[in-house]
Design goal:
alpha/beta; 13 strands; Aspartate Aminotransferase, domain 1; Aspartate Aminotransferase, domain 2; 386 residues; binds pyridoxal-5'-phosphate; globular
């Protein structure tokens, strides 16, 4: 089955949030799932598990072989040397973010976040009663950039954690070595723990490359918890599994003060799917990356040719386009306006923090045909307010 051979009726049958949350006359381009069929080896592994009624307790993290698979995976993909003993399996990446912030800071202590930001970063900090140190990424004429001086001056002795999102959702930045080194150095100078959400690591477009911040130096590694997962790149987020790498024994020990039943871990289907993803699905991933690259170009072409007032930097990573509509007629919510007028569900910029007001996020991980429809419908709505 071809990965892009997806029809609207098949997508609506899937029962997931993306195609079922909104009424059937709405085209969904919101939550970060891809519309592509998962790789055949993953389907086969899961089918086998189902036909064998393989729903008993799975082997744990180490015995399942997944930790050593993670070790070899990050070496192969990012040339990052780690040891499996430094890794824990969690239910998902957002859980890791919440647990990491809980363990490495106390109430009313500060957490640095680069806004606009994937909403759970904001929720984690406020729900856990930490102080958000919101550090805007600055749009220059060609990219979103980091104001390092501003970050450094915002940090004080009550700041404990830098919650990094790299690649960054929603701007699509894949931070480069110089930027990551500067972030790491700031964290070393101020004794901050870095919790680095690298879930989109496999979806960085050439010529950019993913750099795990913990791979930069022993000093940065020793204060970094890296969260990764097969879920975004292999489109299996609903199966729930994430990997947390701890750059020092002390960090891991502290994290393990959370009882293992609270941390969660493997489940029968995710073990099968992740093992298959990381052993048998790289050619599928290459195909998907090529499709996403082309889709990204379709979005760029659409903006350039049809919506010159819309601000847009093609993402260096992720399948999410972050569109700045602030030069158009103002609307209380562009997301609602586009839903009502274009019948397309996009993500509301304001959900990514105040700095996202006036923006929308469009998920372009779908077939080129559906993407063309999304763009045409959104384009007609934007034409009315241009
Ligand atoms: C940056 C980022 N982190 C985490 C997640 C969610 O990860 P999980 O489902 O493993 O909690 C997403 C999903 O879109 C994301 O974009």
């Amino acid at each position: 089955m071809s990965v892009t051979n997806v029809t609207e009726s098949a997508l609506r049958r899937k029962q997931g949030a993306k195609w079922n949350y909104y009424p059937p006359d709405i085209l969904p381009a919101w939550v970060a799932d891809m519309d592509f069929n998962v790789a055949e080896p993953i389907r086969e592994a899961l089918s086998r598990q189902i036909s064998d009624s393989g729903f008993g307790y799975p082997l744990g993290a180490k015995d399942s072989g997944l930790l050593s698979l993670f070790q070899s995976r990050v070496k192969k993909r990012f040339n990052w040397d780690i040891d499996e003993s430094e890794v824990l399996i969690l239910n998902d990446v957002v859980q890791g973010l919440y647990l990491g912030i809980s363990v490495f800071s106390d109430k009313n202590e500060g957490v640095v976040i680069q806004t606009p930001i994937y909403p759970p970063f904001l929720h984690a900090v406020s729900e856990l009663s930490r102080l958000p140190l919101l550090q805007p990424l600055i749009a220059t004429h060609e990219q979103f950039e980091i104001d390092f001086d501003k970050i450094e001056s915002a940090i004080d002795s009550s700041t404990k954690v830098f919650a990094l999102c790299n690649p960054h959702n929603p701007t699509g930045r894949a931070f480069n070595l110089e930027e990551l080194t500067k972030i790491g150095e700031i964290c070393c100078r101020h004794n901050l723990i870095i919790i680095s959400d690298e879930i989109h690591a496999d979806l960085v477009y050439e010529p950019k490359q993913h750099i795990p911040i913990a791979s930069i130096s022993p000093e940065i590694r020793a204060r970094t918890v890296t969260l990764m997962s097969a879920s975004k790149a292999f489109n299996i987020a609903g199966l729930c599994m994430a990997f947390a790498h701890f750059g020092s024994n002390a960090l891991k020990k502290k994290f393990e003060s959370i009882p293992s039943h609270v941390r969660g871990g493997t489940n029968a289907l995710s073990v099968a799917a992740v093992r298959s993803a990381w052993t048998s699905c790289d050619s599928w991933l290459n195909d998907i990356r090529a499709i996403l690259f082309n889709n990204r170009n379709l979005v760029s072409q659409f903006i350039l040719e049809k919506q010159p007032k819309v601000g847009y930097f093609p993402p260096e990573a992720t399948y999410l386009a972050w569109l700045d509509l602030r030069k158009l007629e103002p609307k209380p919510s562009y997301q609602s306006y586009i839903m009502d007028t274009a019948k397309v569900a996009v993500s509301a910029g304001e959900d990514f923090g105040d700095q996202g007001r006036g923006f929308i996020r469009v998920n372009f991980a779908t077939s080129p045909e559906i993407l063309e429809r999304v763009l045409a419908q959104v384009g007609s709505a934007l034409d009315l307010i241009s």
